[in-house]
Design goal:
With 350 residues, the chain is mainly β. It contains 1 helix and 25 strands. InterPro entries: Cadherin-like_dom, Cadherin-like_sf, Cadherin_CS, Protocadherin/Cadherin-CA.
Length: 350
């Protein structure tokens, strides 16, 4: 801290992290007593609290060139757990200007299919000091390890580039902090928000939740034959799905009120004697460009109902026999057929 720094100046400190959640992760800070420095908390836009050292009175390097402080972070659990870090404050005659970012918040929008190593944005901080005290280096602030798996910042240029493949469906927005540090150790922080733009990289998926097969041929019109779930992980037009049926089948698609479910219902009576089974293909197409599709094959077997009477081969039989024909002689053989199957097609004569 420069000895000419005016009282009331704030110096952001590194935030503590707690792997717990809820009240167990709520952090409070306290610092060892010092007449020249105190501790204040600044609320960030994301709701977190940033500890800052506040200069209470002007410093004089010739009287005292450094201070040793202990910063303690305590969580809200019962019992409370704490962590400490030692802070050494050096008083300098020269580096009395911290870096300053051109913006407090940087924002960018990039496509999810951006290749690794692509430029996302560039942050910039300036320092009014000269020499090494005015040279600024950039780094990540207090960020989760997952952020470093997607992005990297160039320490000299401030360029933020991708290091891994982005996925809108996994995370549609990345937010993190960056730090600018000059050669004298003064720092500044900014926020970065990167919104991921959805690409049509997912095809619709059809899941058969219910299939009534075999289906009796005397099932009434409107009977539900199948219940299907259609899902596309993309968003907007890329995730808007339409369905159509192909194949010879007396079925129709009815959308459910929820939108993601499709119901196949009978539109006309079945006839096993005409078709013992029906095969059809359901195709789901999204609204992306290019269009992506998903298909599901459905086979419905028709079960026979006793809806056909036996039919004789002739409507009338005429036979002439001699009067002396012995008792028990065969006069004629009649035949009848039944289009049904199984027991429904078994014929008895009397």
């Amino acid at each position: 801290i420069g000895e000419w720094t005016l009282p009331g100046a704030h110096f952001p400190l590194e935030m503590a992290r707690d792997a717990d959640v809820g009240s167990n992760s709520l952090l409070t800070y306290q610092i060892s007593s010092n007449p020249s420095l105190s501790l204040e908390m600044r609320e960030s836009p994301d709701g977190s609290s940033q500890p800052e050292l506040v200069l209470e009175r002007a410093l004089d390097r010739e009287k005292q060139s450094s201070f040793e402080l202990v910063l303690t972070a305590m969580d809200g659990g019962h019992p409370a757990r704490s962590g400490t870090v030692q802070i050494r404050v050096n008083v300098t005659d020269l580096n009395d200007n911290p870096p300053m970012f051109s913006k407090s918040v940087y924002e960018a929008r990039v496509a999810e299919n951006l290749s690794a190593g692509s430029l996302v944005l560039r942050v910039q901080a300036t320092d009014a000091d000269t020499g090494s005290n005015g040279r600024v280096f950039y780094s990540f602030g207090n960020v989760p390890d997952a952020v470093r798996g997607f992005f990297a910042v160039d320490s000299e240029s401030g360029e933020v580039r991708t290091t891994g493949l982005l996925d809108f469906e996994e995370k549609s927005r990345h937010s993190f902090s960056l730090e600018a540090r000059d050669g004298g150790g003064l720092t500044a922080h900014c926020k970065v928000h990167i919104d991921i733009i959805d690409e049509n990289d997912n095809a619709p998926v059809i899941t058969i939740l219910l299939l009534s097969s075999p289906m009796p041929e005397d099932a009434p019109i409107g009977t539900v034959v199948a219940l299907l779930k259609v899902r596309d992980r993309d968003s907007g037009e890329n995730g808007l799905v339409s369905c159509e049926l192909s194949g010879e089948a007396p079925l129709s698609i009815v959308a459910s009120p929820e939108g993601s479910y499709k119901v196949l219902v009978l539109m006309k009576a079945l006839d096993r004697e005409e078709a013992a089974f029906h095969e059809l293909v359901l195709t789901a197409s999204d609204g992306g460009d290019p269009v992506r599709t998903g298909t599901a094959r459905i086979r419905v077997t028709v079960v026979d109902a006793n809806d056909n009477a036996p039919v004789f081969s002739q409507a009338e039989y005429t036979v002439r026999v001699p009067e002396d024909l012995p008792v028990g002689s065969v006069l004629i053989i009649v035949t009848a057929t039944d289009a049904d199957e199984g027991l429904n097609g078994y014929i008895k004569y009397d």
